[in-house]
Amino acid sequence: MVYPFEVNNAITSFGEQADLIFVFFDPMGQALCKRTLNIVEKLSEKCGDKLRFYLSKADEAGRETDRQRVMMQIVQELCRRPGLNKCGFEMPTIYIPNPQKPSRCVNQIDEVCETIEKSINQAVQKTLNQLEKDCDLIISTISNTLDQDRFIISTFTPGDLDALVGEGLAKPLYLSTVRSYFSALCNIYIPPVVHGVVVYLWEWIPEDWQIMFVLIFGALSYLLFFLAKYFARQSNKTLTKREKKKLVEDSDYVQDSVKAKKRKLYEEYLQQCAAEYDF
């Protein structure tokens, strides 16, 4: 009985992952040995609500008095262990019927099948519901990622812009970008007075310097935009066109394919349950 791994730890690990744990006490074998009960007690500590106890091969335990004696021995042995001494203890008798050897022993194996079926139904419902939540989480996460990546310079703080373009231009640039962002986002109407200010400043510039001013202003704007984009990518990595396209495709696939498949599986599951109920 030597294994290259800890058998008890493996069994308890399986028990934690399982939905149900069946403990079969064989009246013809050594079901009450210390090693078996140690594992059962350890399982009861972590997942006692999953444990189900059964007296297997109950038809081979002799007469009814013999079966009662065997069950009393098992119950007494379990009650000696604090982890297994629980109220409402149940141990149905089960066995595989043999037409050539009829038995008067009550066979509760149908209840075992119902317990398994109920656990499967709960697992299917839980899995399908979790699939729906995971799909919504993926779609919302992709949407938020694309929204955050859509604007770069708007994520700068005034302090970052001070270090980037100087204290004099930081505040106007920050306000203009934020104002432009919200104007585009909320479709805000810009009053005519703003246009009047621009016209006044344009007339204030000498006519000989207007073309030069446009060139200098354009070059400065392009330089500031390039610097802002460069430093923004250094501090906050932006998505490439390929990455954005891939995210959009993933979101569409989850929305159109995965969620549709989930609805189809749920309908098939309900139809199967209804058919079994009618049967």
Instruction: Count all strands and give the number.
Output: 2
The amount of helix comes to: 55-70%
Structural class: mainly alpha
Query: Would you list the SSEs in sequence order as H and E?
Result: HEHEHHHHHHH
Strand share of the residues? under 5%
Overall mean pLDDT stands at 76
Strand neighbour order, sheet with most strands:
1-2
How far is the first residue's CA from the last residue's CA?
47 Å
Keywords: Membrane, Transmembrane, Transmembrane helix
Transmembrane segments: 181-205, 211-232
InterPro entries: P-loop_NTPase
Give your account of this protein's structure.
The chain has about 280 residues and is mainly α. The protein folds into two domains: about 5-105, P-loop containing nucleotide triphosphate hydrolases (Rossmann fold); about 135-275, no CATH class. The protein has helices spanning about 5-15, 35-45, 65-80, 110-150, 160-165, 165-185, 190-205, 205-235, 240-279, and strands at about 20-25, 50-55. The protein has a two-stranded parallel sheet with strand order 1-2. Helix 2 links the parallel strand 1 (about 20-25) and strand 2. Helix 1 packs parallel to helix 2. Residues about 175-190 have low confidence and may be disordered. Keywords: Membrane, Transmembrane, Transmembrane helix. InterPro entries: P-loop_NTPase.
Layout of SSEs?
Elements (H helix, E strand, L loop, with lengths): L6 H11 L3 E5 L8 H14 L3 E5 L8 H16 L29 H42 L7 H8 L1 H20 L5 H13 L2 H29 L5 H38 L1
Parallel strand pairs: 1-2
InterPro entries: P-loop_NTPase
Keywords: Membrane, Transmembrane, Transmembrane helix
